[in-house]
Protein: Branched-chain-amino-acid aminotransferase
Organism: Wenyingzhuangia heitensis
Amino acid sequence: MGINNQNITITKSTTTKINEVDFNNLSFGENFTDHMFECDYIDGKWTNAQVRPYGPISLDPSAKVFHYGQAIFEGMKAYKSVDGAVWLFRPEENLIRLNKSAIRLAIPEFPKDLFFDGMEILLNIDKEWIQTSEGSSMYIRPFIIATEEGVSASPAKRYKFMFILSPAQSYYSGEVKVLFADKYSRSASGGVGFAKCAGNYAGQFYPTKLANDAGYQQVVWTDSSTHENLEEAGTMNVFFRIGDTLITAPTSDRILDGITRKSVIAIAEKEGYKVEVRDISVYEVEDAAKNGTLLEMFGAGTAAVINPIVSFNFKGNDYNLPKLEDSYASSIKKKITDIQTGKVEDPFGWKYAVRSI
Ligand code: COI
């Protein structure tokens, strides 16, 4: 099967930055590979698909992305084995979610063949950059921005889709103390919380900065109408372990349908853990913390996979979580990363082998 059925133009860089990168000391999202993929939406169709040397793009200052935030993105990871095979983790899920985000932001959907051909050609060209050492992966950032010039507040007629690649190591953000939101909100019913749109993240920066200034690393977002139901942690979905039960909020139009979230649920169920997908209130968690049954809290997302939370603050009171030897978080994280990195068989069919060119 040809990988380039979409007539993607390829222009290779004559130089490489690979020797400038210290792959043992990577900061998340700060280094990019030698090439990028781009494709433009013009006159009602996606066209001009190309892989070319990584570098700045030129946009008119009136481009709608700058004024109205018509921008969506995804986060994915590729892995490479010592024998050179490259694979992705549940990539169709990212495409499905990208297109759900696109519909909500009035952006044209991106075609599946172009998505896979473009990504796989790019990964082949920058394959050297995918490291095989423990914890290494290639973070893939697909995104779409509105490029049409003009400041009228209406959906653009022209867009740019891109893939950029950033080598990543296992993500450790230190001890995470969180603050339960009781004033600010990440999303609201009927809004765009389920979409991976740029504004959802920009809107978190200020309340998160306030939390950081108060000594907390992340905010756990609550529902905007009552601030009683716990919905997401920072840029991740959030899980609670009360006794032996793992609990997470159901997805809704306020909550991102996280791919790591659904992988955590699938693994936990396969392991025989009791999993409840239901609303979980701040009071239930506070009571469980007080009576000692709150054993774990963790965030789940592509970048960190699972990020354990050591304490939370609710209405001015701090509650510490116990330090467990054999936490669900570490056991589930190991199971997911072992599948992702190919250490164990993948019983779920989540791995997608990248075609070679
Ligand atoms: C994720 O981990 O899923 C993210 O979206 C993180 C990204 C915003 C850096």
Summary: The pocket of 2-OXO-4-methylpentanoic acid is lined by residues 75, 201, 235-236, 301-304 (CB under 6 Å).
